[in-house]
Amino acid sequence: MKAISMSRCTFPALAVLALAVAPVSAQNEQLQERVAALKQAAAANQEALTHYTWQETRTVIIKGEVKKTEKFQVRFGSDGKQLKTPIDPDATVGSGGRKHGMKHRVVEKKTAEYEEYGEKLGALAHLYAHPDPAKLQTAYQAGKITIGPSGNPDENRLVIQDYAKAGDTVTISFDQVQKVLMSVQILSYLDDPSDKANIVVKFARVPDGPGYPANIGVEGVGKQLAVGIQNSDYKKLPAQ
Question: What is this structure's pTM?
């Protein structure tokens, strides 16, 4: 009789366990589908962008003051890295004794340090601007991706931990209907975790073409230095 009593107690417990497992399984399936859709769209979009060239305008702002503005003609190389050609490299805008057209500038040490820091921030922003399918898969397998809250039923919002650096957080918003990226928000850092950087990427779309990071804003919190990157004038490369 005692054994029967234990058996009777087991059935309700198993039923409760089954009810608990079912939602978790559904959530895992939903997450897997959303990650797969994002990976597929990101890979297709990245491949499409290799057939374009565009202009990048980069502005360095220190404590609210514009210190440097540069323009580049950009395209992707065969290795997947961006190839940049300066447009009017002597047309630097800013303060601190710099004049338009001066090829031999005397740059103060502090200004040079800030410019180097700005270059690092720009490079960090590009690390996150185009979601990498391989990094997404690695994060998914490690259980580092969760579904984030969204007020838009068409929006797929994923929150990723340790995406490119240990301790970073990346939130990707993706339109599941249009299959295009909407935005990426990043909490990261430069060489040291204490040197924090906040990055926001807003996407637009080439008419009848791929999506692209139209506006990238990155802030170096400790130095009160910000870098703004605008991409525009996308044109298809000649067919090879």
Answer: 0.79
